[in-house]
Amino acid sequence: MRLRLASVFLVLALAGCSGFSSAMRHGDDAMSRHDYDAAVKAYTRAVKIDGADKTAQQRLAEAQDAAVGTRLDGARQALAAGDLIGAASATADAEKILPGDPAVAALADQVLDSVVLTGQAQVQQHHFDTARALFHDATPLLPDPSARIVKADRAALDAWLAALTSGRDAAVKANRQADGLLQERMIIQLAPSAVERARCTRMSNELRAKHEVVLAQKMLVDALPPERGARPSRGSETPEQRFSALSRGVAGVRPSQWLRVTTPDEKLKAVATINSTQGDTRIADRHERESRTQQYQAGVRQRPNPDFARAVDAEREAQRRDDRAQRDYDLATTRLGQAQAAVDAEGPSPDSETPAERALADAQRQLDHTRGDLERSHDELFARQQTRVNTPERFEEPVVETLVYEVMHHSVRASATLATAVDRGNKKGAFSTWPLLIQASDESHAAQPAIGLPADPIELPNDKALYAGINDQALQALERVIQDTFAGAVADQRNKAMALDGDARVEQLVTYLLMDQAITDKETDALLYEVRGIPAASLLLDDCGQPE
User: Fold this and answer.
1) Which strand (E) or helix (H) includes residue 416?
2) Which of 64, 164, 354, 547 is least surrounded by CB atoms within 10 angstroms?
3) Is 303 exposed, middle or buried (0-12, 13-18, 19+ CB in 10 A)?
4) Backbone angles phi, psi at 98, to 5 degrees
5) Tens of pLDDT along 262-300?
6) Domain boundaries, the chain
7) Are 285 and 242 in contact (CB under 8 A)?
8) Best CA proximity match to 516, nearest among 477, 476, 483
9) Can you state the angle between helices 239-251 and 463-498, rounded to 10 degrees?
10) pTM (two decimals)
11) Is the CB of residue 153 less than 8 Å from the CB of residue 132?
């Protein structure tokens, strides 16, 4: 047992020596190529194996100093270049290698001062979002026993909210509802509360109620054209009511929402007016008769099958050949018997072959030859017999007749014209025409069953369906006009805003974003951020925030 334990201890000691030497060698190699992080790992492993080795401890300290020095140099360079987060990250890495090192702590304090001062300068410039992003990124990297970054971030938020509140109040007082709504929405984003949400909703409703756009229709489209032959019954409906019915079919909303844009004027006025008229729907029926001829199978008749006659002839010919082969075989058999009798009569033959024996050999060969011919003729006869048995004597032949019949063609055609013009402000738009057309045709005749076709009566859309189809085409065309007009109104609003300066530009840019919630205009967002300190303004105006 003592011998066995000694062997184990010897093996462990040898393994420890081998691992220590390997770790030291890897550390030295890493130091020589200035890979100080790898050197720290290698020397740390060596110290764990032999903590009493002074050389390993000294080299680990040297590697740590070199790794920390590299990071501090990088932190100072980043600090000089204005990369505060890069400097904070390098300083944090150095702290992990040598916790509590005075040089690291001094540089961390310097970076912390720079973060706080830079953020405060950005707040002074109303770049609140940039300042807070800097504070939030630096907080987990830098030790901050006095919570200076937290206090600076809180001060930045308070300053941002104060600026927004002041700006909102000034905008509302100056009758710039859109500008005020944007700042109110950002207040909710930063500090959500029920009071601010209620204020935002009220501002939004007042804005839309004040700047509702009116669509003046000079010529209106009827939603449901009357059926042919019936007098239009308008009843007590006004043109505006009939147009509203049409608008619901197109967009499912009130017509004023097709071009919901805001205007800075106190009086309501249309940014764009869509003038449209749909002409009367004309329906034409056309009936034509045409004489046609059609061949069809009226029945069948039995006809002799020529293949059967050929099969019978072939069988007879095969039978004749078989009979002839049989006679040849019988004759050869007889001759063989005669030759055998002649040999038997001669008695035992001398040493040489006798004529009788040669005749017997010839007779045997002839018999073998005729036997082969007979077998082949039997096979051929059997095959011919099978062919004749499998071939029908008669076949059915279709009886084709020609039918002369009358075809009736029936076609319907519904047509109308939609004319639209878009007036923008005082500029009259030119009318564009949209052709509306539906066509259908079919045919039928009494001879269909006779020629093997099922009876198929004519089926065409009735007048009501034709009127509805024409009206659907008109709605689709009008919807395209509405979409194009709306896109033009949005573009005009943006151009109008870009021609202004200061608060007036802000008001009109926010108005432009409110026109279409699908707008994401990076240039507009950048302008509003520069002026109001509000990032991603186009994404804030969807609603007044959801309660938490």
Assistant:
1) strand 394-424
2) 547
3) exposed
4) -130, 80
5) 444 545 566 777 877 888 889 999 988 888 787 777 788
6) 20-163, 306-381
7) no
8) 483
9) 90
10) 0.59
11) yes
